[in-house]
Write a structure and sequence with these properties.
By secondary structure, the protein is an alpha+beta fold. About 60% of the residues lie in helices and about 15% in strands. It has 28 helices and 20 strands. The strands form five sheets. Strands 8-7-6-11-10-9 form a six-stranded antiparallel sheet, sandwiched between helices. The two termini are about 60 Å apart.
């Protein structure tokens, strides 16, 4: 993916900042070696690189390369040393970042798994850089192998401390300003940070000769580190470890602190300092992770309690718990509200709850609860609650017992009872249901009259809206590609249309979830229903007050028939829901028929296109047949031309002899030779054509021997001298005399050169210039015959080495071409390749490549001739 210009600039700035930070901290760390120790106690660049890769991505690796290159150059190292050593640092940070991401690492360090992942990365990743740098420096002689263990240990320990100290600080530093934002923590934070700095300064700033330096006070800041972790979380723990480590390193750089008083030499003091930093940082990080997890758990618990309370409020369901052993009773806030009290105004009291019950139900409830407590059996009681204002609410209480406690739930079922009463009253509308059945039949008949899918859907929404007297009825389609859209709609003019509505992937998933079970969705009042954000937004946008949806399941696809009431909420009647459900079955059948009809139409269209395609193919075959007939005519003409030429020559000689007087006519030897040659030419031409298919499918056998190519070509040029003079041709023989001998059949190679030269003379005007070359390439000899003649096009070059008929491209040149065809046969039998390069008007270059040694080809024998005897004898007799 190509980056835009602002993105490129941002990337370059990030790389530059990383390189500067890497170089600057490295120089500061190098200056610590002024302690005359063998190693710096901390290598922050390793931690900076890992933090950058975790926060911004591993694609910032050029910054590490550049920073390390500048560092080595500033220390007087070579460019090669800079380039090679930097890859170890890059690999260390990249591997650690990738491993942490695979583990689901979060930079906030508020989980123990993040902390332990970082610690393990700090211990393992530096092994890459330490091993790489040690092996490279030892291999290139930059370090004695006797120092390998010490060098690797030093690099590993410095990088390890750098990652443990610097990486958490860079990951958490953006959270430090928030430590002191809460008013209650400002004073505590200031006191904590001041004490941490003072104690650390006193412990690590002491002179080695001072008495305080000889006491084990280096771990005195630990309580303050724990204080920061417990009170301020991961941010406080990381800040504490950074402050303590920073002061310890700073004072150690100036030769102060308890580590110098207790160590026998400087290297041991540096090791003590590194061990201290590792313990402090690890302790702080682990403690921070544990505190972070505790805080997260506490927050989740609070959210769960709040969610439960909200759910109870919405469901009007309260609960109480009684612990048998401790005799402790607990009420939920919703139970207080159901009983008519303000939550938490008094401790839970069974007598108070009993007084809230309607006097007519109080004794019955008291007896039922007492009996349930004695028998410890679950029970259910419905009773009334009487509020001080005289309002009555109907509740349902259920009890469940365990070995150590009893739990009760009290739910306000007033609305549910009222709904049940309304449903009972709706039974009186049975006759309306019968009428709806008749109407269903009529609608189904109208739907089934058409096979066009669009007409079926439009008829459905129109009839359903008319029957229900709804404000809007539409059919939506949710396919298996996470796409949804409205296919048909009937809506009143007063309300907006949903025809342009298209569901996104999230909307499709929510609507699928509503109808996944195949049940209808009935919403009498959207203001009282619990809907997902997408559905609630739909209700608001299209002014829906009540909705009735029935699914139409067709395989993996879901169709929905939906009726909306937009003017006011509506109590959908059971017979209306039942009607739509039965109608959905009829619509599903109609949709399937419509889809089948569309498929048939598509198949008819496809069949017509296939007929047209087959007709076009037949016309093409007929054209090819016409072309073959035309080729046949030209071929017969060419064959007749070649045979007629020989017959006419022999006939002319015989007529001359016939015209001589006398009964006996003396015949010269030359005339007999010409007649025999003409006769052999005809016979060879016929045999060659008959045996062409056999010679193409069987290998050619050759007689191999060592051949000096320069001598062979020179002898051939002397033989062809009269022909070259007659055609006014100039030959430039550039074959070098030092060519290695070639294992090949000399007679066949001579025939190849002869065919190529005579072919160039025949097809070009007099005055042609020929150039012969040969070079050795990868145990092969590459030979070429170049001319400056008329050249040829690519279509001619493609069939030039096949048995072809002249006259297809040039009507003035007829006959059957065998010379170049035989050249290909000979070169292929030698295990080589032959080709031509030409552009019209610039000449042609014929080339072939032969191996210097005898090819190991199946079917070759020591003494052989061509498979076609007549073809071999015709090589020198048929003009190429």
């Amino acid at each position: 993916m190509r980056l835009k210009r602002p993105q490129v600039l941002q990337y370059l700035c990030s790389v530059a900042l990383l390189a500067i930070a890497y170089f600057a901290t490295a120089k500061i760390s190098i200056s610590m070696i002024g302690l005359n120790a063998n190693a710096t106690p901390l290598w922050p660049p390793a931690g900076i690189a890992l933090a950058a890769f975790l926060l911004r991505g591993s694609w910032l690796w050029p910054g590490v390369i550049l920073g390390d290159f500048l560092l080595v150059q500033s220390l007087g190292g070579s460019a090669g040393h800079s380039f090679v050593s930097s890859w170890g640092s890059v690999a260390e940070a990249v591997v650690a970042a990738i491993a942490l991401r695979r583990l689901g690492f979060r930079p906030s360090l508020d989980r123990l798994q993040d902390v332990w992942g970082l610690i393990v990365a700090a211990l393992c990743a530096p092994l890459i850089n330490a091993t790489w740098s040690t092996l490279i420096e030892g291999s290139l002689g930059w370090m004695q192998w006797s120092q390998a263990w010490e060098n690797g240990w030093t690099l590993w320990l410095g990088d390890c401390m750098g990652i443990l100290v610097a990486t958490p600080a860079l990951l958490i530093c953006r959270q430090w300003p928030a430590l002191f934002q809460k008013p209650g923590q400002r004073v505590e934070g200031a006191v904590w940070l001041s004490l941490l700095c003072v104690v650390s300064w006193v412990v690590f700033g002491s002179e080695p000769q001072a008495a305080i330096a000889h006491y084990p006070l280096e771990y005195l800041p630990f309580p303050l580190v724990v204080w920061g972790a417990l009170r301020f979380g991961p941010s406080g723990a990381v800040l504490a470890s950074l402050v303590v480590s920073g002061i310890a390193i700073f004072e150690a750089f100036h030769g102060h602190g308890p580590f110098f008083a207790k160590a026998e030499h400087l290297n041991q003091a540096v090791l003590f300092l590194q061990a201290f930093m590792g313990v402090v940082t690890t302790t702080a990080l682990v403690l921070a992770g544990a505190v972070g997890e505790r805080q997260t758990t506490a927050e989740l618990l609070q959210k769960s309690e709040a969610s439960l309370a909200n759910a109870q409020r919405i469901a009007q369901l309260g609960n109480w718990d009684l612990d048998w052993g401790q005799q402790q009773l607990r009420w939920s806030d919703e139970l207080y509200r159901i009983l008519g009290f303000v939550p938490k105004t008094f401790p839970p009291d069974p007598e108070q709850a009993l007084q809230a019950i309607h006097p007519d139900d109080r004794d019955r409830v008291e007896q039922a609860l007492a009996q349930a407590m004695v028998e410890r059996q679950p029970c259910r009681i419905d009773y009334r609650i009487l509020y001080p204002d005289g309002t009555e609410r109907l509740v349902c209480e259920k009890l469940a017992f365990s070995d150590h406690s009893v739990t009760g739930t009290v739910q306000d079922i007033t609305e549910r009872k009222q709904t049940e009463i309304q449903l009972q009253a709706a039974s009186e509308q049975v006759h309306e249901a019968l009428r709806s059945t008749q109407l269903l039949t009529e609608i189904a008949l109208k739907i089934r009259r058409s096979l066009e899918l669009d007409q079926v859907l439009n008829t459905t929404v129109t009839e359903v809206r008319q029957f229900l007297q709804a404000d809007r009825v539409y059919i939506g389609h949710l396919d298996n590609q996470a796409q949804g859209y409205v296919l048909a709609e009937s809506v009143s003019e007063a309300w907006p249309s949903v025809m342009c509505l298209e569901y996104d992937e999230e909307g499709v998933q929510e609507f699928r979830a509503l109808f996944a079970s195949g049940c209808s969705r009935v919403v009498n009042d959207v203001a009282l229903s619990q809907s997902t954000p997408k559905i609630a937004a739909f209700y608001q946008q299209y002014q829906v007050k009540a909705s009735l949806g029935v699914p139409i399941i067709l395989g993996d696809e879901v169709w929905v028939l939906v009726a909306n009431q937009c003017e006011h909420p509506r109590q959908w009647q059971p017979f209306e829901v039942n009607l739509l459900e039965q109608l959905a079955i009829q619509v599903a059948i109609a949709i399937q028929q419509g889809q089948l009809y569309q498929q048939v139409q598509a198949l008819n269209t496809n069949l017509e296109s296939q007929v047209e395609e087959r007709t076009a193919q037949l016309q093409q075959k007929m054209q090819e047949l016409q072309d073959l007939n035309h080729f046949k005519d030209i071929f017969l003409h060419a064959f007749s031309h070649d045979v007629r030429t020989s017959i006419m020559g022999m006939s002319l000689i015989l007529k001359n002899l016939q015209n001589k007087p006398g009964d006996s006519v003396p015949v010269m030897r030359s005339m007999v030779d010409r007649m025999v040659q003409s006769n052999e030419r005809q016979l060879n031409l016929i045999n060659s054509l008959l045996e062409d298919q056999t010679s193409e499918s069987q290998p050619m056998a050759l007689s191999y021997e060592a051949v000096r190519l320069d001598g062979l070509v020179q002898d051939l040029l002397e033989e062809l001298e009269p022909l070259l003079v007659r055609n006014q041709a100039t030959v430039c023989n550039l074959l070098p005399a030092n060519l290695p001998p070639l294992i090949a059949d000399p007679q066949q190679l001579e025939q190849v050169f002869k065919n190529l030269i005579t072919n160039a003379l025949k097809h070009n005007a007099p005055g042609l210039q020929l150039t012969l070359k040969a070079t050795v390439e990868d145990q092969q000899i590459r030979c070429s015959v170049e001319d400056n003649g008329v050249g040829m096009g690519p279509e001619v070059c493609d069939r030039l080495f096949k048995l072809y008929v002249r006259g297809l491209d040039n009507p003035h040149l007829t006959g059957i071409g065998l010379g170049l065809y035989l050249c290909r046969q000979i070169i292929t039998a030698h295990g080589g390749r032959v080709g031509v390069e030409s552009v019209p008007g610039t000449g042609a270059k014929f080339w072939f490549v032969l191996p210097l040694t005898k090819p190991a080809l199946a079917g070759l024998t020591a003494e052989t001739v061509y498979n076609s005897p007549s073809l071999r004898s015709s090589i020198s007799k048929i003009t190429p």
